[in-house]
Amino acid sequence: MTCLRPAAVLLACIAVAAPSTADAYIGPGAGFAVLGSFAVIFVTMLLAGASLLVWPFRMLWRAIRRRTKSKPLVKRLIVLGFDGQETTITERMMAEGELPNFQKLAASGCYSRLRSTFPSITPVAWSSFTTGTNPGKHNIFDFLDRDPRTYLPRLSSTEIGSVDKVLKLGKLRIPLAKPSIRLLRKSKPFWTVLGEHNIWSTIIRVPITFPPDKFYGAQLGAMCIPDLLGTQGTFLHFTTRPGGESFQEGGLQFELRANGSENSFEGTIEGPENSFFEGNPPMTLPLQIDVDRENGRALVSVNGDSLELEPMVLSEWVKLSFKAIAGMKVTGICRMMVTEMDEHVSLYVSPINIEPEKPAMPISHPGYYCSYLEKKLGSYATLGLAEDTWALNEKITDDHTFMTQTTDIDNEREEMLFTALDRLRKGTLVTVFDATDRINHMFWRYTEEGHPAAEGIEDPDYAHAIENQYRRNDEIVGKVMERLGEGDVLWVMSDHGCTSFRRGVNLNAWLMENGYLALKDGANPSEPWLQSVDWSRTKAYAVGLVGIFLNIKGREAQGIVAAGDEAEALKAELKSKLDGLMDAEKGSVAINDAFDTDKLYRGPYKGNAPDLLIGYNHGYRISWDCASGVVAGSVFDDNTKAWSGDHIVDPRLVPGIFLANHAIDSEDPAIIDLAPTALTLFGIRPLAHMEGTPIVDKDRFKRS
Amino acid sequence: MKLLNDLLRPVFDLLQSPFIGLPAFVGILVWSIPVGVFALWVFGKTSNQERIAEVKRRIFAGLFEIRLFNDDLRAIMRAQGEILRHVLHYQALALKPMIFILPPLVLVMVQLHQFYGFRGLRPGEEVLLTVQLAPDSVEAGRRPEFSLEMPPGLHAAMDPVWIPSLHQITWRLGVDDWGDWDLAINVDGTKFSKSIRATEELIRLSPERPPSNFMGQLEWPSEPPLDEGGAVHSMTLGYAEGSVGILGWDFEWAFAWMVVFFVLTMVVALVLRKPMGVEL
Amino acid sequence: MFGFTKVKLEKSLVDRISRFSEIAGYSSPEEFITHALEKELAQLEDADSEEEIKKRLQGLGYMS
Q1: Amino acid A9: pLDDT
Q2: Do B280 and A36 touch (CB under 8 A)?
């Protein structure tokens, strides 16, 4: 109520100052309008005054706390990450003059290929970028890790605990603690080190930042921020079509029921679990769709709001507030689209993102940074893997919808970038754009002849989607270059490239064929998550996307291979058989190399890595079945999903790109070198545990 | 205006009748609810809600920015500047609904001022009655003829005073008893009346019998205006200022009720803005 | 959620930890200590229920 006081004072002033009583009547009336803003002025003044007063002390405190004196060689370091931007395409387009700003940047500084990590996948590569260490030190080896106690996969980057302490009041369960959310990426981000030297960093959507790091600066988290259901992205599909079976992967199907007329339908959105009640029933929101077939419009009512939708046109962000108990809400945002409204009616609901204004989980540092961005640019995608590749894979949405989603998210990101860039006077800004990677994944099928995922599609609209995206990246680079000043350094980079994914390899099927993996008697080999495996007769198994684990005694719950010589011999045997593995049907090499991770990694966490890392050839990757722990089927099969390009291959085949507005002193820069280089640019000696070496000689900057 | 006042007077007397014996605060509280709802409704209907929401977002963004970059003086100043700009924009956006809210609000508040702005006379008190003559009705040097018929319950505490420079006649009246009178004042042979009330109840008081012009009638609606061109311009009775008691504190000020009313209206608006879906 | 608690350790132990944390590849002694304790705890703690894990697996997106 304190905010009312200034308004009352204002009124009193008017009344006292006014000679005529008539004037006093204006006071309340005008005050009514002024109130909101007046309170804001008041708070602002207070804040400003406080900020000004506190400022010298704050500076003093920072100076005292500063570890060592650093003499920055640059004013600002701006890093633009285009996840997955492929070297061959970039180089060709640059040579053709299609990427003028990339060319300009290369001419004024450098262009180079950037060695990725083993394996060359987003979470691993960006973690090495962040920490300047190999996976053995940052502990991220794959998207997924396996729990050696159960052999089941789990997310490698984040652990969300459950709450044991609850107060039971009848049916009500009141959690007495918040669930713990832990980042499993170890070691130290370079922005934390910069912060210890009083250097500000704004870190926007760099993968593996959930929960966010704590440091001197601001961070918006990215991979692997979950959706409101706690998954990595579950779309919802409401339909009147019979057969309520959910999708094998990534989506849930719900029934739409006729609501007394052929034009009105209702369904129920199932939200997050309600931990306040026994059995954690999902919180629900009723959904109603009224279709106007004649005019091609549908009215979707949810949450007390109605929105008019045209078929196959995505809505803006829609807020969904789920009520847990009185006075407690969990809010998410989603986009909706009516996918059909003729004989049947179907509605696509995107994964429900955590709402950024009042997030249900910590998605930024400081906690209000995500709210700040929401105030600046409105609702935006917060999900780690925000582009709904799954709905496209399942053919619930189409190329156009996916592209709209992806471009919209890319635009949000661009706004975030420039909002941060315009306010950064000294320090670091890193922004990662995901669109390139997602578009590579989903539209690679149109870039080559005979891709099994493009069969039957003539003249696709998005044949040039990848190139168009690279052109768009070039535009962003151009806009950033225009804003560079004296002492500013710009890096443009990708964490890995991309290549074709035509054939899937089921490593578990191969292991079974070759006698390393056995099934339980009578078990159904199509069961996911290796449920059919007889562990007492299994020496090796594949979980996750990148490698093979040995079933080692003492490490795995039902291990049978003795650690040491036996394990080493088995590893060598597997390696010799997998190196150069042929896909007989196609007559080509499927696996270039199987790498012994014991030799690949150094550091305290390397024991968590798969024992062998599989380096696939162009066109190959782990199959969809194998990734979900299905043993059945042939070793090789065609990939017919829209997800048709990938980079889970021999990392030497898919390096990233690196451009800078300065020359570099390294012939063969690697993504792991960038953290120590960033420290060097700010006059800080790279920390001893970091393995990358700075790619610039610091004298280069002193001279200039 | 006269017609409007004639219409509003009985309406407000009726609406105000339940509060006659109650503390002023109760009446003000009850009045603030419909007025708050009305103002909120009009604001919602007549303002550009989308732009207001947008501007408010920007103001909040500025506040976050000050907090975020609290080490950077230049960023703080810049954010301040932006907030100020958006606040001005907000004010501009609030102007339009104000045009719609203000006229009815002023009418209501003027009426309420007759009840809550002043308190009735009490036996033993004295009060000044000032009769303002029209300047051109008295030639220079002439003292007009005037008299006042004193009803029982009142007495003249002093002889009337004629102030030639101001064209004013002033009586000091003493109150002997509770009552409700119409004073009959004779000026140069014409009779004028003025109401006077000695009461402890919360009823309509008329501190001034207004001139016939618009502003006068707007401000003092309790008695019919004096004729235009007549000898008397206006008549003022110096009632004591009203008081409002809140939490044991008694604020004695003609506009104290207005402050309370305003604050309560704001509270009503703030509480109801979400349920009524109005962006303030 | 992000709370920290202080634990007292013998100074000589901390000195040894500090000396070896860098050699072992940790970014700080705190990271060393945390990892050592987590490894020990992992031996003692039960795995989450299979149902719990399966629920979490749903919608891993990238992988399946």
Answers
A1: 41
A2: yes
The minimum CA-CA distance between B55 and chain A, rounded to whole Å, is 10
Return d(Cα A476, Cα A470) in angstroms, integer: 10
Total domain count for chain B?
A: 2
In B, which residues are within 8 Å of A376 by CB distance? 57-58, 61
CA dist B54 and B157 (Å) reads 64
Residues from chain A contacting residue C27 (CB–CB below 8 Å):
131, 133, 137, 186-188, 687, 689
Pairing, β B118-119 against β B240-241: antiparallel
Domain ranges (residues) in chain A: 4-65, 72-140+185-224+384-498+654-704, 233-354, 503-649
Residues B182 and B263 grouped into a single domain? no
The pLDDT value given to residue A5: 38
The confidence score (pLDDT) of residue C50 equals 67
For the stretch A249-275, pLDDT in tens is: 668 889 999 988 889 999 999 988 888
Residue in A closest to C3 by C-alpha: A180
Other CB atoms closer than 10 Å to residue B7's CB: what's the count?
10
**pTM of this prediction?**
0.86
Of the partner residues A144, A147, A362, the one whose CB lies closest to the CB of residue C63: A144
pLDDT above 70 covers what percent of chain A?
Answer: 91
Q: Which chains, if any, share at least 3 CB pairs under 8 A with chain A? A: B, C
Residue type, A43: V
On the question of pLDDT at C51 being above 80, the answer is no
Residues B136 and B210 in one domain: yes
- Exposure of B112 by Cβ count < 10 A (0-12 exposed, 13-18 middle, 19+ buried)? buried
Please tell me if residue A152 touches chain C, with a CB cutoff of 8 Å: yes
Whole-angstrom Cα Rg for chain C: 17
Q: Among A114-128, A257-271, A602-616, C42-56, whose mean pLDDT is lowest?
A: C42-56
Residue A481 distance to chain C (closest CA, Å): 33
Q: A146, A152, A156, A353: best mutation site toward chain C, by most C Cβ within 10 Å? A: A152
Distance of alpha carbon A225 from the chain centroid: 7
- Mean pLDDT rounded to a whole number for chain A: 90
- Mean pLDDT per 10-residue run, chain B (280 residues)? 87 89 89 90 90 89 89 86 87 86 88 92 93 86 88 90 91 93 90 92 91 88 89 92 83 86 87 84
Kindly determine whether residue A29 and residue B106, on different chains, have CB atoms separated by under 8 Å.
yes
Q: Are strands B179-187 and B168-175 parallel, antiparallel or unpaired?
A: unpaired
Mutate to test the interface with A, among B32, B43, B68 (most CBs of A within 10 A): B68
Has residue B280 been placed in a domain? no
C64 touches chain A (CB under 8 A): yes
What is the reported pLDDT for C55?
65
Mean pLDDT of all residues in A449-466:
92
Residues B176, B89, single domain; the answer is no
Q: What's the CATH number where B198 sits?
A: 2.60.40
Q: Which of A92, A82, A80, A85 is nearest to A440 (CA)?
A: A85
Alpha-carbon gap: B71 to the closest alpha carbon of chain A (Å): 6
- Which token pair is A616? 């696939």
Mean pLDDT for chain C? 79
Is some CB atom of chain B closer than 8 A to the CB atom of A51?
Answer: yes
Residues B193 and B100 grouped into a single domain: no
Please judge whether A25 and B56 are an interchain contact, meaning their C-beta atoms are less than 8 angstroms apart: no
Coil, strand or helix at B146: strand
Domain covering A72-140+185-224+384-498+654-704, topology: Alkaline Phosphatase, subunit A (3.40.720)
Interface A-C, measured as beta-carbon pairs within 8 A, has a size of 105
Token couple for A564: 């040491």
Q: Which domain holds residue B213?
A: 120-241
